Fold this protein.
Amino acid sequence: MAEELLKEIKSLTSSTRTKKVDYAEMRSKADQLIGAKMAIAWAYKFNIHGEKLKDDDHVTVNGETMNASQLKERLSKQSGWAEYEARRAAGTQKTGSKDILTIGRLAKAHAGFVSKLIHKKIAHLSDDLKAIKATADSCDLPDEYCYLNAPYGMDEKKIKEHDSDLVKFYRRFNEVIASAVASGWIVPTSSKVRDHVADYENYKVFRGIGSSK
């Protein structure tokens, strides 16, 4: 039966893998929409203090302040933003455009700048992230890489150099979140709990870097 079906198929094509996000393009778009310095400042806020944007959030660079309303207004100027927001509200944003600059993509695209700011002590790692590192098992990860999106700003050599400590940090992050959920301090937004170790391994596949396992 199978052989007969195969004889009937004369040609076959399919859609290709979903387009990957171009983070260099995201940086360029952020520079145009927000301004380079403000984009880096917001990336610091989102990477170190969380991606949830509250109405009273703001960043200040060299005395100049941008608030949450101003950021949202600039992001909304993008073509396709209304569709993205609708998909996000419906929980289907993953099927949306890979060309839209979102908060998450802004944070990832500027991770390298965030790490340099922390290394130079111009900006600082949060106490929460310091505590995760301190309670992780034998974790010697430098402060500038102690946040979830850090590998997006690291070259392949740096990722391999700090691979085991990144895994330890993400594993401890998972444990802290699981404990917070069990205690009722955090209410999950979905039934599936995010595994940051798995996310890191998937990102290395995205970059073509070997697994830690």
